[in-house]
């Protein structure tokens, strides 16, 4: 797509006439009455949409419909243009003076942030006709129907940090649901976790953007992973679905890039992108989501992000790449294509992120990943930072992943591959020919957004049609739909119209749909890891969710893994399922490391392990400052992880050794309040470990 010169949005925009929108805008207390003396900016609603308007200059109308943002541009400020870096519905906007200045303008801008953003745009562009604009500040809470806060007012993907609705305070309270999850960090010289974002001393602009996003405090995975990322260490992190992994990799990377751009002038080449950070994602929708998330946090900074993925117009993406970027979010296939066309060079990569890393490295993606990482000029292991995140991390994939990293830290929040306790899971026995009836009952019984998962594209099509015939409005997302249809389906589902989405596993990973209340496995997956990701579309960010699965005789192979998973998560496990699991022997699914194999969370048997239980108790003598202040308590396991005790270089001890869980059992947790000390690592210890790492990297 040519640089979309403020193209008319897909949805119709209000007609601007002399400062008023046609169709009698229902002013928020009256646009003009907001402040009669302050005419620079007004905010009002038109048919339920939020409109932000710069007066006097008659320049821009921003229309947020609660999901995306659509800009209807009449004529922008003298010397300024708005360009789309990608599909306009995805909010890939930047405002530029066409020379050396531009700033991202994105649908993640919260209403609260808008005035500041406009101010910056205008100031950096040299002001408007010599006029100093005045801004009215944030919209008052509740100013948009159905919203409780400015961030919620902005709605959907709009800047509210807590996108599940509700106030930031509610979000913080919901986040407490994760506080008592035990955390393990292994690997040598592991940086300490933090309690607050403020402790991280992030780049001021990033910190400001985190505040604007209303992230009040880091989630557990963020507390542990961000310090590791900032220390430029390689990291493999495993945390439950919906617990904030995206921020856990974005913040340290953006912090480093912002600091580097402050220190040295930007030499963005033209005609080809040479990103400093490459983020790989297995699906197009997830790539877009990560890019949007990045845009929220690079606002008003010098950092540029571009997203490229298959199924979308190549020309638009090439145009965006031609202007250069620091962060490139990509799906592997399209990336390889663009590298071949000479549009992307990987020689400047300082940070490589594999989101949904286990999926990225499984057999389907491994060849493309190897090519991108090993044969396209990317700086090798040790010269770049590699970060991998997922909610599941089978051992064999960990082993493979370790080839792409060195001296890495492994962080596990909760059990690797476990489901969050926030999701209530139930399994119904059902013959194939009875499933449709049951599905209708389930949808009727649970109001709210529901994703129905099936195994194949055909099944998705048929089921969508069946629901339509049954007068249940539904849409679908699967590989046979065009990218445009997929995006449209997801956007409508996010808005809640329709409230039912039929999906294949293309929607199983990473997608963050606020207020998705219910996941139904109409057809169970063969791989238990897929089950974990699928049901993780609900019960996110501390909110409760429901997952219902229809188990038919065809699903026998997954019975055993399912039983293990349900028991691990303290969920009701029907007797009939246990009986089937016992009959069917080993799980057919690849990957779930059930209780028997849980001992090796970090597959490195001799990694140094630290265990933490978040504690409100406070300071723990004998341990590092950060933990004492943050109320963390390092813990020692018993024999469950046997290997770490064998390490000659490093161990924790306490006054009374905790009981081990035995081979392969659960790690013993130290009772709260015990005093911990850290034994010094003898000289040469590190070298010993390096030798070990070098060994398995071959
Ligand atoms: N510290 C925080 N405070 C408030 N909200 C947060 C915080 N961190 C993340 N969020 C919000 O939580 C939601 C879930 O985050 P995210 O999508 O990163 O989860 P995830 O762990 O990557 O999930 P998945 O395993 O499904 O990929 C998002 O809406 C995000 O904006």
UniProtKB/TrEMBL annotation:
CDD domains: DEADc_DDX3_DDX4, SF2_C_DEAD. This is RNA helicase. It catalyses: ATP + H2O = ADP + phosphate + H(+). Keywords: ATP-binding, Helicase, Hydrolase, Nucleotide-binding, RNA-binding. InterPro entries: DEAD/DEAH_box_helicase_dom (IPR011545), Ded1/Dbp1_DEADc (IPR044763), Helicase_ATP-bd (IPR014001), Helicase_C-like (IPR001650), P-loop_NTPase (IPR027417), RNA-helicase_DEAD-box_CS (IPR000629), RNA_helicase_DEAD_Q_motif (IPR014014). SUPFAM superfamilies: P-loop containing nucleoside triphosphate hydrolases (SSF52540). A motif (Q motif) lies at residues 195-223. One of its GO terms (molecular function) is RNA helicase activity. It comes from the Eukaryota. Residues 226-411 form the Helicase ATP-binding domain. Residues 1-31 are annotated as: Disordered. The keyword Metal-binding does not apply. Its EC number is 3.6.4.13. Residues 422-581 form the Helicase C-terminal domain.
């Amino acid at each position: 797509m040519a640089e979309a010169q403020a193209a008319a949005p897909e949805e119709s925009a209000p007609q601007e006439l002399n400062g008023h929108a046609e169709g009698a805008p229902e002013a928020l207390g009256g646009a003009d009455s907001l402040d009669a003396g302050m005419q620079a900016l007004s905010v009002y609603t038109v048919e339920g949409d939020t409109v932000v308007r710069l007066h006097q200059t008659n320049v821009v109308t921003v229309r947020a419909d609660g999901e995306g943002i659509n800009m209807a541009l009449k004529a922008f400020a003298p010397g300024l243009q708005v360009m789309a870096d990608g599909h306009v519905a995805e909010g890939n906007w930047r405002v530029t003076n066409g020379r050396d200045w531009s700033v991202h303008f994105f649908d993640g801008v919260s209403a609260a942030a808008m005035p500041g953003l406009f101010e910056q745009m205008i100031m950096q562009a040299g002001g408007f006709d010599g006029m100093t604009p005045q801004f009215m500040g944030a919209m008052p809470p509740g100013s948009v129907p159905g919203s409780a806060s400015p961030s919620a007012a902005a709605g959907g993907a709009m800047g509210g940090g807590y996108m599940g609705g509700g106030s930031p305070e509610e979000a913080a309270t919901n986040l407490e649901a994760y506080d008592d999850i035990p955390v393990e960090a292994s690997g040598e010289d592991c940086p300490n976790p933090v309690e607050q974002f403020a402790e991280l001393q992030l780049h001021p602009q990033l910190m400001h953007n985190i505040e604007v996003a209303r992230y009040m405090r880091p989630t557990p995975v963020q507390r542990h992973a961000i310090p590791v990322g900032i220390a430029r260490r390689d990291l493999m992190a495993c945390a439950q679905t919906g617990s904030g992994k995206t921020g856990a990799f974005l913040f340290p990377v953006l912090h480093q890039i912002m600091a580097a751009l402050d220190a040295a002038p930007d030499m963005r080449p033209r005609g080809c992108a040479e990103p400093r950070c490459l983020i790989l994602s297995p699906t197009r929708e997830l790539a877009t989501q990560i890019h949007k998330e990045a845009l929220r946090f690079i606002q008003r900074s010098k950092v540029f992000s571009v997203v490229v993925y298959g199924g979308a117009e190549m020309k638009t993406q090439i145009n965006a790449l031609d202007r250069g970027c620091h962060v490139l979010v990509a799906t592997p296939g399209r990336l390889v294509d663009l590298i071949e066309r000479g549009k992307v060079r990987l020689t400047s990569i300082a940070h490589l992120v594999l989101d949904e890393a286990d999926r990225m490295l499984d057999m389907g993606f491994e060849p493309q990943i190897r090519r991108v990482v090993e044969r396209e000029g990317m700086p090798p292991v040790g010269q770049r930072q590699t970060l991998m995140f997922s909610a599941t991390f089978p051992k064999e994939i960990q082993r493979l992943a370790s080839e792409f990293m060195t001296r890495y830290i492994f962080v596990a929040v909760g059990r690797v591959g476990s489901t969050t306790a926030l999701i209530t899971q139930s399994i119904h026995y059902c013959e194939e020919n009875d499933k449709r009836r049951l599905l209708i009952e389930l949808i009727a019984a649970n109001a709210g957004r529901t994703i129905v998962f099936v195994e194949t594209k055909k099944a998705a099509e048929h089921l969508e049609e069946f629901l339509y015939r049954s007068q249940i409005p539904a849409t679908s997302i699967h590989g046979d739909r065009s990218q445009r249809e997929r995006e449209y389906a997801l956007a409508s589902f996010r808005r809640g119209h329709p409230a039912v989405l039929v999906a294949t596993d293309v929607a199983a990973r990473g997608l963050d749909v606020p207020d998705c209340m219910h996941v139904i496995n109409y057809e169970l997956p063969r791989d238990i890891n897929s089950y974990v990701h699928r049901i993780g579309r609900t019960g996110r960010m501390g909110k409760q969710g429901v997952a219902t699965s229809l188990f038919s005789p065809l699903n026998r192979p997954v019975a055993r893994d399912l039983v293990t998973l349900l028991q691990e998560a303290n969920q009701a496990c029907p007797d009939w399922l246990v009986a089937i699991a016992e009959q069917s022997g080993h799980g057919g699914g690849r990957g779930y490391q059930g209780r028997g194999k849980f001992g090796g969370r970090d597959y490195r048997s001799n990694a140094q392990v630290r265990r933490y239980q978040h504690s409100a108790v406070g300071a723990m003598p004998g341990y590092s400052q950060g933990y004492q202040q943050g109320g963390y308590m390092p813990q020692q396991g018993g024999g469950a992880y046997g290997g770490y005790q064998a390490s000659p270089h490093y161990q924790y001890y306490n006054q009374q050794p905790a009981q081990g869980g035995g081979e392969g059992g659960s790690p013993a947790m130290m009772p709260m309040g015990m005093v911990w000390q850290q034994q010094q690592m003898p000289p040469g210890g590190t070298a010993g470990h390096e030798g070990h790492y070098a060994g398995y990297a071959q």
